Amino acid sequence: MPRGLWASPHSVLPSPTRSSPPPGRCEAMRMLLADQGQSWKEEVVTKDTWLQGPLKASCLYGQLPKFQDGDFTLYQSNAILRHLGRTFGLYGKDQREAALVDVVNDGVEDLRCKYATLIYTNYEGGKQDYVKALPDHLKPFETLLSQNRGGQAFIVGDQISFADYNLLDLLLNHQVLAPGCLDPFPLLSAYVERLCARPKLKAFLASPEHTNRPINGNGKQ
Amino acid sequence: MPPYTIVYFPVRGRCEAMRMLLADQGQSWKEEVVTKDTWLQGPLKASCLYGQLPKFQDGDFTLYQSNAILRHLGRTFGLYGKDQREAALVDVVNDGVEDLRCKYATLIYTNYEGGKQDYVKALPDHLKPFETLLSQNRGGQAFIVGDQISFADYNLLDLLLNHQVLAPGCLDPFPLLSAYVERLCARPKLKAFLASPEHTNRPINGNGKQ
């Protein structure tokens, strides 16, 4: 099934009309697709195309990413992740686990928004405070791991979910922002290593397409 | 005894959508109201996964995050579209509602006086996607997605009702949204809930602004 992903060369193009455009809202879905052995097409949108063109007006909320699953068009990065979660059985083993996957993903989203605000609106002035407060925001995920198979499995249950890919991406971005930020969290540290060792994901993370793609649209990380 | 408990501040805030859903679905639930003092002084905050409310109990099952709670109730009561495709569209809608809810919250809690004029001026651009969605679904005569109500309808309705208080007439340019709000509010159980003292006496937001 052909899948196309419209994304900027920076994963998501920050629109100048938004106050805090989200950085890298596509790498999680890319990791998911790669790890699930799927291929997809990238339709890269340059800043000029975005600002000048009809694409933005054609997007439901005037934003990217836009995702095509055959003839089915989706917007909103978390809706796309959930759709892929349903498609590939990455949404917990039952309704109870599905709810927990949502609890995790919404927490990841909250921290992603804080990260975006820092990166796009207050990097120099806000970074120190952000890094200082970061342990409090990472701790819930350590707690969740500690409550699930002693942290040796996934963020929820025994099988990988879309929330794992989203959390992993968030953690990888934070390791760039604040190297060592996972040191106080042994389960999260091991979790990141373990997920990154999954063969298809490892290959994707080592690929030029991933390594050459900046995390954020303004060059800050 | 109802299996559902909502643990939250004495406001509509991020819980009125789930309250409307439960009421409209003929469910009863318990409210555990948390005062500001209890929250600031007590062990409850530290016990909450992300240090925030709402907290929701479904029997012995505890959930956090208002949208996770809505999705759980969506699955429980069949309010998540008729198939996977509709489920994805319900998510697209709910995430858009959430985005606007965040902007609303930022206005209310951090910049009401200074920001309201600009916010109201920009509001049509943020409401238009929902009018568009209605226009693409049964000519706007059904729900936001498909033929059956979903958790996204309750969330969108709550958002629109709050905006009608903030900016009366904001739906006038949007005939489908206007009719949609009227139609949903006329649903008997929802109508009764919206007229109830428990709803009408509950402030929309925690700082008295609306």
Automatic annotation (TrEMBL), chain A:
GO molecular function: glutathione transferase activity
Keyword Mitochondrion attributed: yes
Alphabetical UniProt keywords: Cytoplasm, Mitochondrion, Nucleus, Transferase
Catalytic activity: RX + glutathione = an S-substituted glutathione + a halide anion + H(+)
Protein name (database record): Glutathione S-transferase
Gene Ontology CC entries for this record: cytosol; mitochondrion; nucleus
One GO term (biological process): glutathione metabolic process
Gene3D superfamilies associated with the record: 1.20.1050.10, Glutaredoxin
Domain GST C-terminal: start-end pairs: 94-215
Function according to Swiss-Prot or TrEMBL: Conjugation of reduced glutathione to a wide number of exogenous and endogenous hydrophobic electrophiles.
Classification lineage: Eukaryota, Metazoa, Chordata, Craniata, Vertebrata
Family note: Belongs to the GST superfamily. Pi family.
Residue ranges constituting the GST N-terminal domain according to the UniProt record: 13-92
InterPro entries: Glutathione-S-Trfase_C-like, Glutathione-S-Trfase_C_sf, Glutathione_S-Trfase, Glutathione_S-Trfase_N, GST_C, GST_pi, GST_superfamily, Thioredoxin-like_sf
Protein's organism: Suricata suricatta
Short name of any one Pfam family annotated for the protein: GST_C_3
EC number annotated for this UniProt entry: 2.5.1.18
Subunit description: Homodimer.
Top-level taxon of the source organism: Eukaryota
Region (Disordered): 1-23
Compartment(s) where it occurs, according to its Swiss-Prot or TrEMBL record: Cytoplasm; Mitochondrion; Nucleus
TrEMBL record, chain B:
Domain GST N-terminal: 2-81
GO molecular function: glutathione transferase activity
GO CC aspect terms: cytosol; mitochondrion; nucleus
Listed CDD domains: GST_C_Pi, GST_N_Pi
Annotated InterPro entries: Glutathione-S-Trfase_C-like (IPR010987), Glutathione-S-Trfase_C_sf (IPR036282), Glutathione_S-Trfase (IPR040079), Glutathione_S-Trfase_N (IPR004045), GST_C (IPR004046), GST_pi (IPR003082), GST_superfamily (IPR050213), Thioredoxin-like_sf (IPR036249)
Compartment(s) of residence: Cytoplasm; Mitochondrion; Nucleus
Reactions accelerated catalytically: RX + glutathione = an S-substituted glutathione + a halide anion + H(+)
Alphabetical UniProt keywords: Cytoplasm, Mitochondrion, Nucleus, Transferase
Assembly notes: Homodimer.
Family indicated by similarity: Belongs to the GST superfamily. Pi family.
Stated name of the protein: Glutathione S-transferase
Organism: Suricata suricatta
